[in-house]
# Entry
Amino acid sequence: NSIQIIYILISILLCVSLLCLQMSMIKTKDIEQEMEIISRLYDEQQKHFKIRKETIDLINIKCHDMKHKIRLLTNGKNFSNEEIESIDKSITIYDSSLKTGNEALDVILTEKAFICNEKNVKFTCVIDGTLISFINETDIFSLFGNIMDNALNATLKMDNIDERFINLKINKEKDFISINIKNSFKGKINLDKDGLPITDNVDKNYHGFGMKSISYMVEKYHGNLSIAINDNIFNLNILFLNKTA
# Structure
């Protein structure tokens, strides 16, 4: 009868509502867990920021002194110009901090440039670091650390060393500040519902959060993040409104 039908419908609605509530609670819990992991990774990155800066400064000072000492040692000795230049060049690699106009950016990019050189990755950049002075220096360290780590991890999978490259640009585009990074990669990259790459690492508990951290930082400063994938080139673009324009 009609009363039984109404009772059944109400029961179904209650069950559906309860299921939706449970799903919402699970989703909220997942988001909270993700944010906790991102926050933990962020804290770890900040702990290393000062140490890395001091290390790079020390390396530059030592290399600068070493170049002068080598010049004194080789002066008048039976060394060819080619040998002296080879030694000098090997030291210069570690005596070439990037100067972008932003100290925090200089630290992280100098460190990553060392790694690129060691791993045979061609790293090029055209950067005006003053454009991102509105970003907190520890956030810069986190944002660009994750950006460069993701690019390095991807391009190092290229079998052909000549195809390994990372290109980074920070410049003005009309009323926006543009951060663009391109890198080569091997294989296929799948994107999730938010347009972010899905990690191909077997252990997904602590991998894939680099991109989520990047997305979080972009949102924090009211920017826009977009990704394009074409012919084994990964293209990440970030736009912030240029408030000084």
Remarks:
- The mean pLDDT is 77.
- The first helix runs from residue 2 to 74.
- The radius of gyration is 25 Å.
- Residues 44 and 142 are 10 Å apart (CA to CA).
